[in-house]
Specification:
With 215 residues, this protein is α+β, with helices and mostly antiparallel strands. It has 5 helices and 13 strands. The chain has 2 domains: 91 residues, Ribosomal Protein L25, Chain P, CATH 2.40.240; 85 residues, RNA Polymerase Alpha Subunit, Chain A, domain 2, CATH 2.170.120.20.
């Protein structure tokens, strides 16, 4: 993905406020040299942030007529308004080793024996993984094929087929679960039919006599 940034001369709270009032977003690019203060068009950036690839792939940033490869590292949003307040990028090249969260795309779930034959529920325990690799190897996403998933089976990190040089960072967890399979809950038993109301009792002899006396 490509985007355009402009070098920012002024810094500080007041300067950033003026930028935001002009529908611009202050930011910074760091790594591989001196950090550069930048500004971006707010609306273009806001809609770019809605795209998955903008978060997980190498981006082409045009700055001062030159193109640079960068990764999105952080951004801040307003607490309750749809406004981007600040954004950070990191310069990278083919030899830069990066650690980045990558989304998981699950495919063929509906064709798996677990779903098609045994009517099980497939639980996506995680939807993204933290991976470590060279910037040139960074994938936009990882595709997880569930076509062979069976009843009672779980899919772990060790089951993934990753390209050479790509490593999943598990933070000390031995072999995290990515997908699990469970049986569907049994249907709730039908509620018992309501008990028919008992017929009204016939008036007693005493009540009959009382009515006759009143007459």
């Amino acid at each position: 993905m490509k985007f355009v940034a402009y070098e920012r001369k002024l810094q500080g709270t007041g300067a950033s406020r003026r930028l935001r009032n002009a529908d611009k977003v202050p930011g910074i690019v760091y790594g591989a040299g001196t950090p550069t203060m930048i500004e971006l068009d707010h609306n273009a950036l806001f809609f770019a942030l809605k795209k998955e690839a903008f978060h997980s792939s190498i981006l082409e940033m045009e700055l001062g007529g030159k193109s640079q490869q960068v990764l999105l590292r952080d951004y801040q949003m307003h607490a309750f308004r749809p406004i981007v307040l600040h954004i950070d990028f990191q310069r990278v090249d083919a030899t830069t080793k990066v650690t980045k969260k990558v989304p998981l795309h699950f495919v063929n779930e509906e064709n798996s024996p677990a779903v098609k034959t045994d009517k099980c529920l497939v639980n996506h325990v995680v939807t993204e993984l933290l991976i470590q690799c060279l910037a040139s190897q960074l994938p936009e996403h990882l595709t997880i094929d569930l076509s062979n998933l069976a009843k009672g089976q779980s899919l772990h990190v060790s089951d993934l087929k990753l390209a050479e040089g790509i490593k999943v960072v598990t933070h000390g967890k031995k072999d995290p679960v990515i997908v699990s399979v469970s049986m569907q809950a049994a249907e709730e038993e039908a509620a018992p039919a309501p008990v028919a109301a008992a017929p009204a009792a016939a008036p007693t002899k005493a009540k009959k006599d009382e009515k006759q006396n009143k007459k």
